């Protein structure tokens, strides 16, 4: 129970007016940088890092973690409203979030995403508090073979459970691998697949890939169908917000399962991206309404969002206890904490 | 008008040639095992093989008569094609013009052309928006974020 009293002590420090104000500011700033597709959580947090230099350490940690969560959630907002993920881990949210928003239920989609994100993060926090020392040992045992197994499972579940023709999915996956292999190989240091073009030595950045594959693709589809922008309007109806959050417990199994997947992937540094994809794939496989996935299913939003945020939160655990960041954003944050 | 079958063909050939490029390029890095372990070209080589094989499969499958109910014969009608070209062609010209004119002049011209020609806005209004766009780009990127955007050969030749 030592942990519990320390957790409560932490709350008494955190719940003071200036700290609460900092949290609000941090989350808003985080959502702002998360919503901008080019920026994403790691870049955004590093941009905002200088703000914390003049602060007390406690305030700095509060501001940084609020920005971290804000940025994680901001990525989901653009996924749902524009079908343009703000960061890799919210790609899986577009599969059901965007169809639901286009269906005229953007508020429900956003509220569902937010509710599941909160649940995932909460589970992550509880886990961090109670299991820190035990989990640290498990995380240390996670090596290259385990990474390979986790990602292989995530990709294989995508081929097997995707709605499109499996061979086309395989080709698309392999093209993704090939694009990721462009540039300097991190293992051997040799330059691959550049065709002698100097700009490619750095590789293809995520921003470029997302803008090309999601942004321009979405624009072309919108133009093909009708000549006006089809960003879904999102007038917020509070009854709908509370209704959507209130309906979350009905999907309790999906919530718990996704939170478990997310925590596991966050601790063993598989990261939020693998977690959200795997959670989506597994939900699709086990849900009774699995064949409706991709058309705006509630569980299709819950699963990736819960796992994403559970992983995002528990990624802080290896960082705080071992100094090994579980995600790129956590790595940037660690840089901030060390100063 | 573009038929579904032509689209399947084109996509398969496109992905297939990408795969061939990946395979050829990865041979430079060596495939197989050496004293240092797996050669760096092995993984791209294998993904390239997968891309080529999958593309061939898609090519053959696309050539066969409609096999699934989802196969609609016409993928893009001529009206839709014209709309797509209306977005794509000016954008392609814009991107091609950036190395020559620099991003500020090119984006001003692009915004002006897109507003003045298909939307039939007044010339004055289009010029104002175009100038404002370039100015906003300059202020946000060069001044606030200190990011150098491409200035282009023309502006360089003029001494900026």
TrEMBL record, chain B:
The chain crosses the membrane at residues 7-25, 45-64, 84-117, 123-141. It comes from Bradyrhizobium macuxiense. Residues 16-150 form the DUF1468 domain. Keywords: Membrane, Transmembrane, Transmembrane helix. This is Tripartite tricarboxylate transporter TctB.
